[in-house]
Amino acid sequence: MKFKASQIAEILEGTIVGNPDAEVSELAKIEEGKDGSLTFLSNPKYTSYIYSTKASITIVNDSFEADQTVSTTLIKVKDAYKAFSTLLEYYNQVKLRKSGIEQPSYISATAKYGEDVYLGAFTYLGENVKIGKNVKIYPYAYVGDNTVIGDNSTLFAGVKVYSETVIGKNVTLHGGAIVGADGFGFSPNEKGEYTKVPQIGNVIIEDDVDVGAGTTIDRATLGSTIIRKGVKLDNHIQIAHNVEIGDNTVIAAQTGVAGSTKIGKNCIIGGQVGIVGHITIGDRVKIQAQSGIGRNVKDDEVLQGSPAIGYSDYNKSFIHFKNLPKTVDLLHQLDKKVNKNG
Predict the structure, then answer these.
(1) CA pair distance 74, 38, nearest whole angstrom
(2) pLDDT confidence band for 328 (50 / 70 / 90)
């Protein structure tokens, strides 16, 4: 796809300084720009590159004034970084604009879907599936019986959505995500053998949720596992049965949340965090990477460590931990002096 400077300026409501017919077909960092590429300058530390970049078009802030000759066509905007992000989003939408039903694919006779859907090759839609408008389901995706998917949602290649799942509008499930698999429910008997407890609940994913590649969200034993509006889940996260995650909470990769735990709104949870089951985490909580959470957490707490303690307490304790060998040596020296004098 090629775009002219005039088209880009119209999208960004910017002003062109240079050639309005300059064309670009790819994006690049300013220091790596080449003919036919588009870049941007927002950080002053990279200003020197604007005089040497080979990029055909560069987006800059309105305040930028060149003190040397530039060969790149400039598009001046209020906020270059934000404008470039807007352009990336627009480019992505154009790139992913697909429609139609590819073959081979299987669509149950009872499945229903809205206008402008895209179903990639080898997709499967089960009984009574309901899919909204402008939904994109990429090749090798599976959508189980009685599942509902809202408008403008996207399931990338290899996504598996088990039966009875409810997915809202503007949801993205990245490749390999699995939604609705059985929760880890087993009951031991007197012989120490484990019997599977049927998992007959479902998963509900509300609007504007993003689920990363390889992430798994288990169905509830009874009731629902719920991912609230605006939640963002990174790659390779495990969400167990009957978990509830509040609005706009973000969780980084390799975190695991055990069954029936409730996480509040607007929380930020780092990578490789382990959270035990049957606890409640309040709103606006921040948990540093590799922490272990084994207790209820109040609103606005900031935690680190395993088991996690208050963030500032952890940092103070870590200073003492680093000095522990010196402290031990000092204690040995004092002990020798006491014994000698004694």
Answers:
(1) 10
(2) confident
Cβ-based neighbour number of residue 153 at 10 Å: 24
Which residues form the catalytic set?
241
Q: Does domain 101-314 have CATH number 2.160.10.10?
A: yes
- Residue range(s) occupied by CATH 2.160.10.10 in the chain: 101-314
Of the chain, the percentage scoring pLDDT greater than 90 comes to: 81
Mean pLDDT of 4-21: 94
Q: What is the pTM of this model?
A: 0.81
Give alpha helix (H) positions in the chain.
5-12, 80-95, 311-322, 324-341
Task: Judge residue 155's burial from the number of C-beta atoms within 10 Å of its C-beta, 0-12 exposed, 13-18 middle, 19 or more buried.
Answer: buried
At 232, the amino acid letter reads K
- 117-138: string of b/e by CB count within 10 Å (b at 16+)? bbbbebbbbbeebbbbebbbbb
pLDDT per residue as tens digits for the range 178-189: 999 999 999 998
pLDDT in tens, 16-62: 999 999 999 999 999 999 999 999 999 999 999 999 999 999 999 99
Select from 2.40.50.180, 3.30.530.20, 3.40.50.1820, 3.40.1390.10 the CATH code of 3-95: 3.40.1390.10
CATH 3.40.1390.10 intervals, the chain = 3-95
Contacts of 323 (CB under 8 A, 6+ apart): none
- Does 20 sit behind a cis peptide bond, omega within 30 degrees of 0 on the bond before it? no
In angstroms, the CA 333 to CA 75 distance is 69
